[in-house]
């Protein structure tokens, strides 16, 4: 049965966006730590928090830019001490992902946030990997872990982190670059990314969230990334947009994050429609859902509600892009595409 997007009225879009299968490609697992779990783990581990209650912590989530968020995000992660804590955090994410019809998740973790506090690399990776394994068994969700280097720290520290992680090489597929973007260009990590590529690791990097188009270009040229995380500022450079479209270079866009961190004033101002119109392989993701007001389905539903030019055709395109941009084989992609087709047929016959 062929798809006719015009047979899907706007009022059926929210249900379709929620039910359609999708891949999540930009999710920091530490950013899925809900205030309730932060308090529970703080109590379990005897960690003192500078907030009196869950509500007081939530009230502090009023960010003015990336750095104002990162300060609170790193403080929240300080309650993670034992392997069970990392498992519990990731398991809570997978429960939400299953409810949102996520069929595949590629998950960032920030080992330096933990190893700098004396937590062993094994504790972090084994806790997360155990949750990934169980999510596949219980929910049928496949997943990959991506180790992120913190760009506000040195390249030497990144090399150290890589060294510590290599005994667990089978548990992660690639490396990324996150944390404070401005003043920390991708080329600062040229050598460690080159080493990672030699080791067969896939590479991605945050670029063009707060930083200029030149950071996206150096992520491509110097770090040789397979995806750009965020990338929304590419629109400031016509030649870069042309290049990204020509190369089908995926952008993992995070609309609610962008609004919370003041990259765009409101969702109605977001440039996602322009990115898609320019032929870019953009995807929708949740970034740090516990901090930014919603998981992947909330990102989809709120973004489509705010932007009237986004309809069933774009919903299809975004889901297909998420499969295309994922680090899986063609067979898996085509199985997900069939499921997507079924969800759309169901929506078109009401
Ligand atoms: N940008 C950069 N670093 C991050 C983010 C982000 O949105 N979330 C967690 N670490
Ligand atoms: Zn991010």
What would you say about this model in short?
The protein is α/β, with parallel strands linked by helices and 350 residues long. It has helices spanning 13-19, 35-45, 54-59, 66-76, 83-99, 111-115, 121-139, 155-165, 190-198, 213-221, 238-247, 255-260, 272-277, 289-292, 296-306, 312-324, 330-349; strands spanning 22-28, 102-109, 142-150, 174-178, 202-207, 227-230, 251-253, 282-284.
What is the chain-wise order of helices and strands? HEHHHHEHHEHEHEHEHEHHEHHHH
CATH H level: which superfamily?
A: Metal-dependent hydrolases
Q: How much helix is in the residues?
A: 40-55%
- Report the principal-axis shape: globular
The number of helices is 17
The largest β sheet comes out as:
8 strands, parallel
C-alpha-based Rg, rounded: 19 Å
Secondary structure: number of strands: 8
Mean pLDDT: 97
**Small molecules in complex:** hypoxanthine, zinc ion
Strand line-up across the major sheet = 1-2-3-4-5-6-7-8
Cα distance spanning the termini:
15 Å
| Range of strand content | 5-15%
Total individual domains? 1
- The CATH architecture classification is Alpha-Beta Barrel
């Amino acid at each position: 049965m062929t798809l006719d997007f015009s047979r899907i009225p706007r009022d059926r879009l929210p249900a379709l966006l929620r039910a359609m299968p999708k891949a999540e490609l930009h999710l920091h697992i530490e950013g899925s730590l809900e205030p309730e779990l932060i308090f529970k783990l703080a109590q379990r581990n005897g960690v003192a928090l500078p907030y009196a209650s869950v509500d007081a912590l939530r009230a502090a989530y009023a960010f003015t830019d990336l750095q104002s968020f990162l300060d609170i995000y790193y403080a929240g992660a300080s309650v993670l001490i034992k392997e069970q804590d990392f498992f519990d955090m990731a398991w809570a994410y997978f429960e939400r992902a299953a409810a949102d019809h996520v069929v595949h998740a590629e998950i960032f973790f920030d080992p330096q946030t933990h190893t700098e506090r004396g937590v062993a690399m094994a504790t972090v990776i084994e806790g997360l990997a155990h949750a990934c394994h169980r999510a596949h068994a219980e929910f049928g969700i496949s997943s990959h872990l991506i180790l992120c280097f913190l760009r506000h720290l040195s390249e030497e520290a990144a090399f150290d982190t890589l060294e510590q992680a290599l005994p667990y090489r089978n548990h992660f597929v690639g490396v990324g670059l996150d944390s404070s973007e401005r003043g920390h260009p991708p080329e600062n990590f040229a050598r460690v990314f080159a080493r990672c590529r030699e080791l067969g690791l896939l590479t991605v990097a945050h670029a063009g969230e707060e930083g200029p188009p030149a950071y996206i270009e150096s992520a491509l040229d110097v770090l040789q990334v397979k995806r750009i995380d965020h990338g929304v500022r590419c629109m400031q450079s016509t030649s870069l947009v042309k290049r990204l479209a020509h190369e089908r270079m995926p952008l993992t866009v995070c609309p609610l994050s962008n609004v919370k961190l003041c990259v765009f004033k409101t969702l109605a101002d977001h440039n996602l429609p322009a990115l898609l119109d320019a032929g870019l392989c953009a995807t929708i993701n949740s970034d740090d859902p516990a901090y930014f007001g919603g998981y992947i389905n909330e990102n989809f539903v709120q973004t489509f509600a705010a932007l009237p030019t986004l309809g069933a055709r774009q919903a299809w395109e975004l889901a297909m892009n998420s499969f295309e941009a994922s680090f899986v084989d063609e067979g898996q992609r085509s199985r997900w595409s069939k499921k997507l087709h079924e969800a759309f047929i169901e929506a078109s016959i009401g």
